[in-house]
From TrEMBL:
Gene3D superfamilies: Kelch-type beta propeller. InterPro entries: Kelch-typ_b-propeller, Kelch_1. Signal peptide: none annotated. This is Kelch repeat protein. The keyword Coiled coil does not apply. It comes from the Eukaryota. It comes from Haemonchus placei. Keywords: Kelch repeat, Repeat. The lineage of its organism: Eukaryota, Metazoa, Ecdysozoa, Nematoda, Chromadorea. The keyword Magnesium does not apply. SUPFAM superfamilies: Kelch motif.
């Protein structure tokens, strides 16, 4: 990778591995993104998200990437949960704010499922309500 990171989101889109956000272990949360081309054995940078985040989820839907939830530092240096969803279009190499979920999510990767056009959290009510919670219509 071009940038050392942990707590990032990762997903495969069009045969390339995308790694987005995370924490670099030093200066803080990252908004940067990069992709790995297996055929060329090469990492390249892509556009940065509008906000830095760690512990985000990353999903592919209809040829785009969706960055979901996570944490970043606020002005007072405390960690703040994100309810925002950003979408990356690889054709234009641009991230755009998509929407806000009705709840904030951190540590998203193992709990998010995209079903048709719904963002579903399969773990949100696990302790008290078996089943799923629909967070956002995409």
């Amino acid at each position: 990778m071009l940038t050392r990171r942990w707590g990032h989101g990762s997903a495969v889109l069009h045969g390339e591995l995308y790694v987005v956000g995370g924490h670099n272990g030093n200066s803080g949360e990252l908004g940067s993104a990069e992709k790995y081309d297996l055929r060329a054995n090469k990492w390249t940078s892509v556009a940065d998200m509008s906000c830095s985040r760690v512990g985000l989820g990353l999903a592919t839907v209809s040829g785009n990437l969706y960055a979901i939830g996570g944490l970043n530092r606020s002005v007072d240096h405390s960690l703040k949960d994100h309810a925002s969803v950003e979408v990356f279009d690889p054709k234009t190499n641009q991230w755009k704010h998509h929407s806000n979920m009705n709840c904030r999510l951190v540590g998203v990767p193992d709990r998010i499922l995209i079903y048709q056009t719904f963002l579903v959290n399969t773990n949100f009510f696990r302790r008290t309500n078996p089943g799923v919670a629909i967070l956002q219509k995409l």
